[in-house]
């Protein structure tokens, strides 16, 4: 693949892109140029979310660059390097190719090819996540401080907007030894501005009394506000010859009250990021003074929610995407292809077929599995049930058997008893007969042939003899 500059775009890359002014980001496959003589390729580890990313993805400046892969606060490690390169490098990168002004894809992606001139070296003590925002937010406030002489110790600097740019602005200004006043629309940020970032005072810009009390007190102001706001009240805060430097980029034009400028020969200037030499200088200065951004690290999947939160000002103070750990290749899914793309359509129908097929297979597997489980369960239940039934049956059966046995046993016992009784009685009778015969012989007690009747009683009852 060759682009309009004749570069070979052979390195496969993967990121998240916005496709229209909804700004919604979704997975996107693309290519980056092959490494040229002065290029390095880096694996991206982190990328900060600058307010400009939100404005560009939602096309607030009317650039219409879709598809747009945002991200220019990029840190990572070099994978294809030049001989002189340090293995830990970063690059500020915008939506435009360095030098050529042509569109390029940003850092919400896995790799970056960049001219070595646009990479800077991080000092060892600067973390790559909290350090990433310095590559835009940091240099955007550092550069005008130096250029406009708003870095002199003891001078009073106002910082408008305590956001991504503003909060590192306070840290740099304090490191320069300046007196710093934050000028904010959010009273809730006062404590953090003073306690955490070291600001000397805090002005609520909507509180006219506070603003009035601070008139004519500042040597300079750096205005980072992202939305249109009254400029006149800020100019009034400047001392004579004071400078108001605008770095925030509101989407609509702001009115300039000329009269405020005339009185006290005040200046208004602007500034955009900074050169590479100055960026390296800023990074080294940040390393020396331990200046990093206050960040909330997020996953790639969270990026659309993060954008919504950024639009509402709901972030303290910079989102940083953990690219290396959370940007997952979706090469096998359909979501990185346009709706209507034939490949997407065929993948969709294939997925549907597979879904149905898998459902059937799973159903069958489950059926067999459940059957087995039920079998075991039922067996157990039946065992218990049958045990009960059999117990009852056996009880009845055994009762009958025992009854019979007992009956026979008792009959036998009684028979024996009766027999022995009868034998005894017979013996007695024989004895008695003998006695009787002998007495008849001697006294002729009864005549022959006369029948006598004798009744013998035993303890079992009467027995007729
Ligand atoms: N010049 C450059 O090279 C350059 C580089 C990067 C970014 N930018 C631009 O700088 C601006 C700020 O970027 P950022 O990343 O710092 O954004 P950010 O994190 O969203 O912070 C912007 C801050 O502006 C203040 N603000 C918001 N709405 C306001 C309003 N209606 N009136 C007054 N103040 C308001 C808020 O601070 P408070 O709550 O304290 O009021 C907010 O925290 C953006 O427009 C961005 O495009 C320019
Ligand atoms: Zn930026």
Structural write-up:
There is one protein chain. The protein is an alpha/beta fold. The chain has 3 domains: 11-134 and 290-336, Quinone Oxidoreductase, Chain A, domain 1; 137-272, Rossmann fold (3-Layer(aba) Sandwich), CATH 3.40.50; 338-465, no CATH class. Helix content is 39%, strand content 21%. It contains 11 helices and 17 strands. It has helices at 51-57, 137-147, 164-175, 190-196, 208-213, 232-237, 258-262, 276-288, 303-311, 323-326, 342-443; strands at 11-18, 25-32, 39-48, 73-80, 88-92, 111-115, 119-121, 156-160, 179-184, 201-204, 218-223, 238-246, 267-270, 295-298, 318-322, 455-458, 461-464. The strands form 4 sheets. Strands 3, 4, 5, 6, 7, 14 and 15 form a 7-stranded mixed sheet that branches. Strands 10-9-8-11-12-13 form a 6-stranded parallel sheet. Strands 1-2 form a two-stranded antiparallel sheet. Strand 16 (455-458) and strand 17 (461-464) form a beta hairpin. Helix 2 crosses helix 3 and helix 2 crosses helix 8 (276-288). The protein is elongated and about 185 Å long. The site of NADP nicotinamide-adenine-dinucleotide phosphate (NAP) has 30 residues, from helix 1, helix 2 and helix 3. Residues 440-465 are annotated as: Disordered. This is Enoyl reductase (ER) domain-containing protein.
């Amino acid at each position: 693949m060759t682009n309009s500059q004749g570069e070979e775009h052979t390195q496969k890359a993967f990121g998240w892109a916005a496709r229209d002014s909804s700004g919604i980001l979704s997975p996107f496959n693309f290519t980056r140029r092959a490494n040229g003589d002065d290029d390095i390729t880096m694996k991206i580890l982190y990328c900060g979310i600058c307010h400009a990313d939100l404005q560009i993805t939602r096309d607030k400046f009317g650039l219409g660059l879709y598809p747009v892969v945002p991200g220019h606060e990029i840190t990572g490690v070099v994978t294809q390097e030049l001989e002189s390169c340090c293995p830990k490098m970063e690059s500020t990168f915008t939506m435009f190719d360095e030098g050529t002004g042509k569109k390029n894809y940003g850092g919400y992606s896995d790799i970056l090819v960049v001219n070595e001139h646009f990479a800077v070296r991080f000092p060892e003590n600067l973390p790559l996540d909290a350090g990433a925002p310095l590559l835009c937010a940091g240099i955007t406030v550092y550069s005008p401080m130096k250029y406009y002489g708003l870095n002199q110790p003891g001078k009073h600097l106002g910082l408008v907007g305590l956001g991504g740019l503003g909060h590192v602005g306070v840290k740099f200004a304090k490191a320069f030894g300046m007196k710093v006043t934050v000028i904010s629309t959010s009273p809730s940020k006062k404590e953090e501005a003073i306690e955490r970032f070291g600001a000397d005072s805090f002005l609520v810009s909507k509180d006219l009394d506070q603003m009035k009390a601070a008139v004519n007190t500042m040597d300079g102001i750096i205005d980072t506000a992202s939305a249109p706001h009254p400029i006149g009240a800020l100019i009034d805060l400047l001392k004579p010859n004071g400078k108001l430097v605008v770095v925030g980029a509101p989407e609509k034009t702001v009115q300039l009250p000329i009269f405020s400028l005339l009185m006290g020969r005040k200046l208004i200037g602007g500034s955009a990021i900074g050169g590479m030499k100055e960026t390296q200088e800023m990074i080294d200065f940040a390393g020396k003074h331990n200046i990093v951004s206050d960040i909330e690290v997020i996953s790639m999947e969270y990026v659309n929610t993060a954008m919504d939160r950024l639009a509402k000002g709901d972030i303290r103070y910079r989102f940083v995407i953990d690219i290396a750990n959370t940007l997952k290749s979706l090469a096998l899914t359909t979501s990185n292809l346009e709706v209507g793309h034939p490949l997407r359509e065929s993948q969709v129908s294939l997925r549907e077929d597979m879904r149905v097929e898998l459902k059937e297979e799973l159903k069958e597997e489950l059926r067999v599995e459940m059957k087995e489980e039920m079998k075991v369960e039922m067996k157990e239940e039946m065992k218990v049930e049958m045990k009960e039934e059999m117990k009852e049956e056996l009880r009845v059966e055994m009762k009958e058997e025992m009854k019979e046995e007992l009956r026979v046993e008792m009959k036998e016992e009684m028979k024996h008893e009766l027999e022995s009784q009868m034998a005894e009685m017979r013996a007695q009778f024989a004895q008695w007969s003998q006695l009787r015969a002998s007495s008849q012989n001697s006294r002729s007690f009864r005549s022959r042939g006369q029948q006598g009747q004798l009744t013998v009683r035993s303890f079992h009852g009467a027995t007729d003899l």
